[in-house]
Amino acid sequence: MSTNNTLVIDENTVIHPSKEFSAKARVSSMEQYESMHKQSIEDPDTFWANEASDLKWQKKWDKVLDWKAPYAEWFQGAKLNVCENAVDRHVEAGRGNKAAIIWEGEPGDKRTVTYQQLQHEVCRMANVLIAKGVKSEDRVLIYMPMVPEATIAMLACARLGAVHSIVFGGFSSESIKDRLEDSKAVAVITSDGSWRRAGVVPLKDNMDEALQNNDTVKSVIVLKRCENQINMTEGRDFWWHEETAKVTATHKPEGFSSEHPLFILYTSGSTGKPKGILHTSGGYMVGTYTTCKYIFDMKEDDVYWCTADVGWITGHSYITYGPLFAGVTQVMYEGGPNFPDWGRFWSIIEEYGVTIFYTAPTAIRAFIKAGDEFVDKYDLSSLRLLGTVGEPINPAAWEWYYNKIGGGRCPIVDTWWQTETGAAMISPLPGCTPIKPGTATRPFFGVDAAILDEDGKECEVDQPGRLVIRKPWPSMLRSVYGDKQRYEDTYWSDYDGIYTAGDGARKDKDGNIYIIGRLDDVLNVSGHRLGTAEIESALVAHNSVAEAAVVGKPHEIKGQAVVCFVTLKTGITETDELKVELRNHVGKVIGAIAKPDAIHFAPGLPKTRSGKIMRRLLKELVATGKVTGNITTLEDSTVIAAIQKSITG
Ligand code: PRX
């Protein structure tokens, strides 16, 4: 359905929520926001105790927050079961027949899972895991397509107090292997394959490769999804449908302490291998729930859809956990946005009457490029609220999203957060915050966000600095799995007792926070974090490569593209075939999402005299074709001209 309410938008446009929206929202004025925010910062115990009381605690906490920087314990002394809150609580409240998940597979198959059915399925899987010897605190690695069983597997782990560690289906066997080793998982839940643009991604084959020489994993549960040919290892591999048929659909949810580990999710940093970000139970539950309540304005009759994959934090917090804590009906879709054509998302919104839609700017830009005709065929009038996450949204994409998808009537919540933060941290509240394209606006309740300079002084209006959070928040990471030192060094060492996000940001005169981008060597490719160090180490692992440097280049759709500079070993010839080989090699080592967009051969890399690669210069070169500023500190400044030539061909 085309819109007639088309607003022309630029970065100075300010849009206020409509009276109708505000009237029904939980926070309907900026005064109310300011006073709630003030209370949440000055008296977090009262604020969070109040929010937490919406949820079920088998034993109430003795203390809301115990903070010994940088270690927080939230809801100390409490006992709860996360899964009980996501599932059983709603069944007990008489909403068992409500649809929890309305699922659509890529080939077009459809399924609705009610809260009651979800309870049965989760209990069955919990019983299967028990039968396989999985105990509280054991790690279970999940490598699944976007099917309800992915959520069921996560919730079954949570129910037992087992710690899930999801690996996104687009990651390679080597990535799985690293994560298996780091987490010492005892069990794996996977599927034969996953549909992606009519082809099958061989998940079980990848898993088999990752499991070679592994001695921690005792059992592998395999869901039959694509019916592709796979190998089953006797005594280790078991079919999901056979095992769940052997057990009952009841299981009593045990209460665990609030700081009981819930999951590990690996994410890229500026150095070394991905870090296992550890999240725990009570605080994460309250944080994700509360953001669903206020930012996504989730209500009883909403049909909510987040297009992320459960392999990313967005899929954890805003598919599996938050929306189920809030008890909404959500849509889950398995496949690509352009299958069979670019209208797939809009057909899903029309068919299920989606009211709240949450996606990424990169997807929006791809839709714009595909053309409006794919949108115009569908009626999107059910939508009332839109959201974005993953990267800053540029005004052109914002305008299209607002007008074309939202019909000029839906507020857009641009949510800034991270794997580490667990829940959205900076975002408009849809019923009150004046919204502007490109800014995530204001800190959420309990979030004491500031922008500091290198000396720890707060930046002036519009002065760029480092984004930090000065107080603990319930859904914060608790550690890097198995590496407290890395936790302290990465997040808490810039300023005493203050969390450094790793993002550059600035605040305008109205208090809106603009995220400028990562300050470390982390790329944001299609809203996903990739460490340049990881790609570089994949490249140098190839036997033709002597040295490599990886930088991001602005990209129209992806936000950033991966550009590699490679110095070959003596005697190796620079050929286009080798470029293809290196590209595929990175795909094999990390996963298809990390495949470089461009590879340039370079006789040498720009380094300081102490041997540090100056990625800043390479970044400038790929973005503008030239280098401004002083290059006299370089060990060999002639490499710049050679690299310039390799870029321009
Ligand atoms: O740079 C910020 C960017 O994504 C990073 C976090 O990535 P990840 O842990 O993979 O989580 C992504 C989904 C929560 C941040 O450090 N980022 C995320 N959301 C935004 C954003 N940048 C600007 N605006 C956003 N709304």
Describe the structure.
It is built from 20 helices and 30 strands. The chain is an alpha/beta fold and 649 residues long. Among the domains are: 162 residues, 3-Layer(aba) Sandwich (Rossmann fold); 127 residues, GMP Synthetase, Chain A, domain 3, CATH 3.30.300.30. The radius of gyration is 24 Å and the shape is globular.
Task: Determine and state the CATH class of the domain at 101-262.
Answer: Alpha Beta
| Uncertain spans | none
CATH topology of the domain at 101-262: Rossmann fold
Helix and strand content put the structural class at: alpha/beta
Query: What is the second-level CATH architecture of the domain at 101-262?
Result: 3-Layer(aba) Sandwich
Q: What fraction of the residues are assigned to beta strands by DSSP?
A: 15-25%
Head-to-tail CA distance between termini: 46 Å
GO cellular component, one term: cytosol
GO molecular function: acetate-CoA ligase activity; AMP binding; ATP binding; metal ion binding
Binding site for ATP: 390-392, 414-419, 503, 518, 529
Modified residues (N6-acetyllysine): 612
Structure described in brief:
By secondary structure, the chain is of the alpha/beta class.
What topology does this entry show?
Elements: H1 19-24, H2 30-42, H3 44-52, E1 63-68, E2 71-76, E3 79-80, H4 82-95, E4 99-104, E5 110-114, H5 115-131, E6 139-143, H6 148-160, E7 163-166, H7 173-183, E8 187-191, E9 194-196, E10 199-201, H8 203-211, E11 219-223, E12 237-239, H9 240-245, E13 256-257, E14 261-267, E15 275-280, H10 282-294, E16 303-306, H11 313-326, E17 329-333, H12 344-352, E18 356-359, H13 361-370, H14 373-376, E19 385-389, H15 395-405, E20 412-415, E21 449-452, E22 465-469, E23 479-480, H16 484-492, E24 499-507, E25 513-518, E26 522-525, E27 528-531, H17 532-540, E28 545-555, E29 559-568, H18 576-589, E30 598-601, H19 615-624, H20 638-648
Parallel strand pairs: 4-17, 6-7, 6-8, 7-14, 8-11, 11-12, 16-17, 16-18, 18-19, 19-20, 29-30
Antiparallel strand pairs: 1-2, 3-13, 4-5, 9-10, 14-15, 15-23, 21-22, 22-24, 24-25, 26-27, 28-29
Helix pairs in contact: 2-3, 4-5, 4-6, 5-6, 7-8, 10-11, 13-15
